[in-house]
Amino acid sequence: MELILLGNDFKYELEKLCRIFLPFEKINIVSEMVEGENLAVAEIEKTGDSLLCNAWLSLGGKNAAFSEEIPLGSDEKDKELKLAQCLFNCFCKITGYKSSWGILTGVRPAKLFANLCRKQGKDQTKKYFSEELFVESNKISLCEETFGTEEEIINKSEKDWFSLYISIPFCPTRCAYCSFVSHSIGQAKKLVPDYVKLLCEEIKQTAEIAKQCNLKLKTVYMGGGTPTSITPSQMDEILCAVETNFDLSNVLEFTVEAGRPDTVTSEMLGVLKKHKISRISINPQTMNDEVLKTIGRNHTAKMVVDAFNLARQMGFNNINMDLIAGLPGDTAESFKETVDKLLALAPESITVHSLAMKRASDLTAQGVLHTVKSGKTAETMVEYARKALTENGILPYYMYRQSKTVGNLENVGYAKKGYESLYNVYIMDETHTILGVGASAVTKLKSPNGPEISRIFNFKYPYEYISRYDELAARKKGIAEFYEQHGG
Length: 488
Known about the structure:
With 488 residues, this protein is of the alpha/beta class. The chain is built from 18 helices and 18 strands.
């Protein structure tokens, strides 16, 4: 598709809006009229004492046009908003599909809702979301519910707090929908010993820098990948490094993603228990065995139940479980059964993701792309999950969105009161500094005295992390430099 911008340069937002309806199509942005079959035109022109925002869309042999008049002195934000509304209306008319998030394309809708509430009050914010952003009432109420719990957690954070993220980029197998940097443990087994050794070294270095900057560790999150795909002794080595180098006496939460049920063994759980891990995830994604096969998972629904029960028997009383709405082969009824089965297990939290079809996933490579129909099914799924979880006292506490997500939907963490993951809120809100260690980890530095944020990226792949570790270690000097510049 050609996106033609005339009299404006709103490339970023208008391209993202087009991707709501055309997530996998290449979009070329030009600043003059061209000919073609699939064209989107967004134009601002002066007409007397006002400006006219025009949008015209030609798609699949159908045409639509919308215009809005605004005052001549309108600021850039208002111009962009009106153009987006007009173009959105064109897409809705031609496709017959209206995203429940309207023209809102940002990653953190609850954060936007919260910021606007602080400036103009809740009633005006809800009106703006509805009338200007075209967000439907169910998503506005989701923002409102999420924002309330998020704010309580955010307000706990103090200037000198930070969180630690530990990356273990290995999995038993690669899921068909996965776009993360993760490697099958079978293929990458020879890399793991060197990876663990250097990870422990980076943990030590990072702890020294945190101490130098007078930072206090409050939450730890070990993710991946599937951290429990390494051996229990390797896990023990990493956790010993954390305990040796960081002061954990005031840590409020330590999460390890056990992830795949086929990696949850009594030996692994014993190591986690020994190190006083306070929260784990056991993630089925679905309780439909046929769908599990389709997405490349080697476990069954029964193995999920067995792993969960084993963790309970070994004393884990804060367990999260992840689900994905919109998986290929799944139906609304099957997803409902999955939600009901997990509720019967009574985990402390359930995270409901919407399938994101990223370019790097195997499903995308195979040409399995979501459609308007699959988006509507996924919408039914997430709405059932929200209703069922809420009725069982498992309430939304954090939310984020991704591009190329089925139905342009959201990912929501639900938890029983008092079992919310602090780390999830802090990283989504960008509340305080997150120090990342391991391959593909990102250190996100947040100024304690202002809005400034800076990032330090680790090398993505384990082999690169190992071979170029000295370069990575040198980058970490940027942490102290950031705090020297922005104050402690």
